[in-house]
Amino acid sequence: MKCPGRLSLKNCCKGSSVVDVVIWAAIIVFVIMPVFAAVIEKFILLNKIQVIKDAVDITNISTYNSIVAEYLGKTIVEFDRDKVYNIYRELLSENLNLNWDLSPRDGSIAKGNVRIESIVLYTSQFPAVCPEGLEIKRPAVHSVVTVPIKPALFSEMILNMLGKQNIELKIHVDSDIPLDK
User: Fold this and answer.
1) What is the reported pTM?
2) Which of 15, 86, 144, 180 is the most buried (most CB within 10 A)?
3) DSSP character for 4?
4) Domain-embedded: residue 86
C-alpha cells in the first residue's frame, strides 16, 4: 500500500495495537525479567560467597589461639593439631550458625551439612604451595570448606529439574598468621 503525499508510514499502515501490546509484554516477560533475575541472583550468590569466605577467614585466623603460649610473639610457631581442629570446628559452627555436627541451624546461610575438606597449617619451609596451587610465603592456615546453599529465583527451578536441591560452594581460604618478628 502506498502512502499518499507526506503521511508517515505509521499513520498509513497501522497494525493491530493488541499485537504490539502482546509483543512488548512477551519481550518484558521472556527477555527483560529473566535477565534482571539472573543479574540479581548472581549478586545474591556473590554476596553469600563473600559472607562465607569472611566467616572461614575469621575461623582460620582464630587458630592463632591454638599456638603453644610459650611461642607467642616469636617466629617459632608450634600448634597442637587436635586443638586446632577442635577450635576450627567450634568457631566455624559459631560463624556460620551451625550445630556442633556442622548441620545448619535456623537462620544459617548453609542449607545442608558443611564439610571441612582440609585444614593445613604452614609454619616453616617457605615458600610452600597449598593443595589448591597458591603460593604461601608466611605462616598461614589453609582451609577448604564445602557449604551447600539454597539458590534463589530461577536457579532453584533449574536445580529441581536436575534433581538437586542445593548449590555446593567449595570455599578455599588461605589466611596469614600474625607474627611479631
Assistant:
1) 0.75
2) 144
3) P
4) yes
